[in-house]
Amino acid sequence: MGECTCIVKVGTEAYKRGGVYFYARTIRVMKRLTSYDILSDEVDAVGTLEGLEGIINLQSAEDGLYVISVCNLSYDWESGLTDGYDLKLVPYTEENKREQ
Fold first, then answer.
1. Does 29 map to a domain?
2. Residue ranges making up the domain that contains 30
3. CB crowding 68-85: b at 16 or more within 10 Å, else e
4. Model-level pTM greater than 0.85?
C-alpha cells in the first residue's frame, strides 16, 4: 500500500420518500485509517459526479471496507507526465492492515 492510503467504507442505501424511491451507493472515508484522501482531491478537481464515476468498480463492489487504488494511468506523449487515471476499490484485508 505504501504511505498514501485512502480507506473507505462502501454501503448501499434504499428508501422511499413520498412517491419517489431512492437507491444509492455510499462512500465514507475512514479518516483514522486514511493518510491521504485522494477521493476528496478528485471530487474537488472534477466534481462529485465525475469523481465518483472515476471509480471503475463502484457499482459491482459489495458493501465493506476498501482501499482506493489508482489504476489505468495514461501519460502525455510529449512531457511524459500523468494526464489521466481511474480509481479502483481493492478489498481491505488483514494484509493491507499490516502494511500501514
1. yes
2. 7-94
3. beeeeeeeeeeeeeeeee
4. no
